[in-house]
Automatic annotation (TrEMBL):
Coiled coil: none annotated. PANTHER family: DNA-BINDING TRANSCRIPTIONAL ACTIVATOR DEVR_DOSR. GO terms for molecular function: DNA binding. It comes from Limnoglobus roseus. InterPro entries: Sig_transdc_resp-reg_C-effctor, Tscrpt_reg_LuxR_C, WH-like_DNA-bd_sf. Keywords: DNA-binding, Transcription, Transcription regulation. GO terms for biological process: regulation of DNA-templated transcription. CDD domains: LuxR_C_like. Gene3D superfamilies: Winged helix-like DNA-binding domain superfamily/Winged helix DNA-binding domain. Residues 197-254 form the HTH luxR-type domain. This is LuxR family transcriptional regulator.
Length: 269
C-alpha cells in the first residue's frame, strides 16, 4: 500500500464502529441496511450510496440484480433517477458495466481508475444522468459471495457536484468497510438456518466468524474492540463447546474453510 493510501488508526476505528453497530442489530436485515446506508454516507461524505447483489454474466456483465439499500441526500434527485431508469430501461450505468468483472476476487475502483479526467468530463453518463441528479465522483466495490457461486455483493458510493474526488486512503477505507460488511452479509444473516450456530452467544459467533476469515487473535481483538486476553478466552470457550483442542480441528468440526481475509490477486502468466 502506498504511503498516501495508508489507513490511519482513526480510519480503521471508524469502520469497525459502523460495522459493530450493524452487528449489534443481529439478523434484522432491514435495520442494518438502513444503518449502513446512513453511516456510509456520513463516513465518506457521499451524496448517494447504495448496495446490491447480482450475478455476473459474461456478455451482459450483470443480471438478476437486487438492490439492498440506497440513501440519497436529496429525495427529489432519487425520484428523478428512478424515473430515468423506468423511462430508458437502463438499470446500470455504463461506468458500472465497465467496472464489473468475473467475481473471483474483491475489486475496488475510483472514477479515475476507470476514466481519465478528459474521458469523464466528456462522457454522456457524467452530463446526463449524473449531473442532472447531482452526482459526480464515485467509488465502486464488488466482493464474491462464497455461499452463492457466480454472485457478488456490490457497493456504490457517489459524491455530489463540486465535491472532491475520493483519495487513495478513502479507497482503502471503503474496501475495509466492504470486506467487513460482506462477512456479515454472507454469514451472520444466515446463521439461524445453520444448526452449528445454535447455542452460541452473539460474541462467540463473532469470534468464530473472524476465525473463519483467517484472523489472528490480535486481529480479532482489533476488529471487535476487545482485549487479546478476552479474545483468547472466547477461543478457548469455542474449543470446549465443540470438543476440540486446535483451530484446524475447530474449522473441521464446523465444516468451515479458513480463507484469507483479503482474496489474493490472480498471478500473471
Amino acid at each position: 500500500m502506498s504511503k498516501s493510501g495508508q489507513l490511519r488508526l482513526s480510519d480503521v476505528r471508524a469502520v469497525f464502529r459502523l460495522v459493530g453497530d450493524c452487528r449489534d442489530l443481529g439478523p434484522d436485515r432491514t435495520q442494518w441496511n438502513q444503518l449502513l446506508a446512513e453511516g456510509a454516507s456520513r463516513l465518506f461524505n457521499c451524496f448517494m450510496t447504495n448496495s446490491f447483489v447480482a450475478r455476473y454474466h459474461p456478455v451482459k456483465r450483470i443480471e438478476d440484480s437486487v438492490i439492498l439499500w440506497d440513501h440519497w441526500a436529496d429525495t427529489s434527485a432519487r425520484q428523478w433517477f428512478f424515473r430515468y431508469i423506468h423511462n430508458t430501461g437502463v438499470v446500470f450505468l455504463p461506468s458500472v458495466i465497465r467496472f464489473v468483472e468475473p467475481p473471483d476476487r474483491i475489486r475496488v475502483a475510483r472514477r479515475d481508475d476507470l476514466f481519465t479526467s478528459t474521458q469523464w468530463r466528456g462522457s454522456q453518463e457524467r452530463n446526463d444522468p449524473r449531473r442532472t441528479c447531482h452526482q459526480d465522483e464515485f467509488i465502486y466495490t464488488a466482493i464474491p459471495l462464497p455461499s452463492r457461486p457466480g454472485h457478488f455483493f456490490g457497493m456504490s458510493l457517489n459524491r455530489g457536484i463540486n465535491q472532491p474526488a475520493f483519495r487513495p486512503r478513502e479507497r482503502n477505507q471503503v474496501q475495509l468497510l466492504h470486506e467487513e460488511i460482506a462477512a456479515l452479509f454472507d454469514t451472520r444473516l444466515h446463521l439461524s438456518d445453520d444448526p452449528i450456530w445454535q447455542g452460541l452467544t452473539p460474541r462467540l459467533r463473532d469470534v468464530l466468524m473472524a476465525l473463519r476469515s483467517g484472523d489472528s487473535e490480535k486481529q480479532i481483538a482489533l476488529r471487535l474492540g476487545l482485549s487479546r486476553h478476552t479474545v483468547h478466552e472466547y477461543v478457548g470457550a469455542l474449543y470446549r463447546r465443540f470438543g476440540v483442542s486446535s483451530r484446524p480441528e475447530l474449522m473441521k468440526v464446523c465444516q468451515l474453510t479458513i480463507v484469507p481475509a483479503t482474496p489474493s490477486k490472480p498471478t500473471s502468466t
